[in-house]
Specification:
- The complex is a heterodimer of chains A (about 130) and B (about 230).
- Chain A is an alpha+beta fold.
- Chain A is about 35% helix and about 25% strand.
- Chain A is built from three helices and six strands, in the order αβαβββββα.
- Chain A has a three-stranded mixed sheet, covered by helices on one side.
- In chain A, β1, α2 and β2 form a beta-alpha-beta unit.
- Chain B is built from eight helices and eight strands; from the N terminus they run βαβαβαβαββααβαβα.
- A seven-stranded parallel sheet of chain B has the order 4-3-5-2-6-7-8, with helices on both faces.
- Classes of the chains: A alpha+beta (about 130), B alpha/beta (about 230).
- Chains A and B meet through α1, β1 and β6 of A and β1, α1 and α6 of B.
Chain lengths: ~130, ~230
């Protein structure tokens, strides 16, 4: 269950971005998780929520984009999505293809409230 | 609402430390291997047998990771080679910082082989680069032959698969051909060998693999120093 450490690493990065942008309020963080990354998206969401709730970053949301494994064929240069571990090139039948995607574990974006919006939100709550 | 593009690895901090370790290992000509498996597949026993094959003067060191206890370090210390236990205190994997910390009071120039025994777990250690030259995954025949399909991330990242405890083959319903086929489906280029630490079968082949890697690194290191 290393998803807790992974979720923590994501929050550390968000906090580091926050330190560079005083006053910024983050709403959502986008993360890309490949099927070969060894990270279970459901477990990651669960841990992320548990860490964010009641923290300084609440109510930060997590948006997970899952990525399938992709291979490229060196013979015909076709890249294809792997289904059921079959890495044979669907075009030319070459058995030796190269993995070109699916092991991603990356932060993609941070969504934040615009300053004007944040100011308006503050006024209306007062 | 605005979007700030990030495009950075989630584990970039771990990867940064791992890259530092890797360059320190390269600088000192150290071959670092990260041994991974589920609990009980025989990592410690394989290491014990490996160390038995080394003469006293070999420049070998070991790190062994466990959630609790220093049992493995005590077992491996009998070999006389420097061993350090990393007790993760709950974490299910080693990360690069733990390795970095464990190495602080060792002189890297004293070693040319560092064997790291990860926490027994086929999932989590796959995500953490420790600066190793290669991951070696061990799968015992007492487990299922579908393990590579169930835990593809690990088998995808390992360079070598050691099928261990093959002396048990007569007593367990393990299909070796299908285990090999499953590993190849997940990782077509993976090297494989069969070993029994009890009978010694296959150990010679493992030692040859290890020595070939050490020789290759020595050559590379010598040409860089020159």
């Amino acid at each position: 269950m290393h998803e807790l450490s992974i979720a923590n690493a994501i929050l550390d990065s968000v906090r580091a971005e926050g330190a560079r942008r005083p006053g910024a309020r983050f709403l959502k963080v986008g993360v890309r998780v490949g099927e070969l990354s060894g990270v279970a998206p459901d477990a990651l969401s669960f841990c992320f929520e548990a860490l964010v709730t009641g923290s300084d970053l609440a109510p930060l949301a997590l948006d997970i984009e899952t990525r399938p494994r992709r291979q490229r064929c060196p013979e015909c240069d076709r890249s294809f999505r792997v289904v059921d571990f079959d890495v044979t090139c669907p075009d030319c039948g070459a058995a030796e293809t190269r993995c070109v995607g699916g092991d991603e574990l990356e932060m993609v974006y941070l969504e934040m409230e615009d300053h004007e919006q944040a100011a308006v939100g503050k006024e209306s709550s007062e | 609402m605005s979007r700030l593009p990030l495009e950075k690895k989630v584990l970039s901090e771990n990867d940064r430390i791992a890259a530092e370790l890797r360059s320190r290992f390269a600088e000192h000509g150290i071959l670092c291997l990260n041994l991974v498996s589920s609990p009980g597949a025989g990592k410690t026993t394989l290491l014990e047998r490996t160390l038995e094959g080394f003469s006293r003067g070999e420049r070998v060191a070991l790190l062994t990771g466990d959630i609790q206890t220093d049992n493995d370090a005590r077992r491996l210390a009998r070999s006389g080679f420097p061993v350090k236990q990393i007790t993760t205190g709950g974490a299910c994997h080693l990360d690069a910082r733990m390795v970095e910390r464990a190495l602080t009071d060792w002189r890297l120039e004293d070693f040319d082989l560092l064997l790291v025994e990860n926490v027994g777990n086929l999932v989590c250690p796959a995500s953490y680069d420790l600066g190793e030259a290669a991951k070696v995954v061990i799968l015992s025949v007492a487990e299922g032959e579908d393990k590579p399909l169930k835990y593809p991330a690990m088998f995808f990242r390992a360079e070598l698969l050691i099928l261990s405890k093959i002396d048990l083959l007569p007593y367990v319903p393990f299909n070796m051909a299908s285990a090999r086929e499953n590993a190849r489906r997940v990782h077509p280029g993976i090297e494989m060998m069969e070993v029994s630490c009890t009978t010694g079968t296959g150990l010679e082949k493992w030692r040859e693999w290890l020595e070939a890697r050490r020789r290759a690194l020595r050559r590379e290191h010598a040409s860089q120093v020159r």
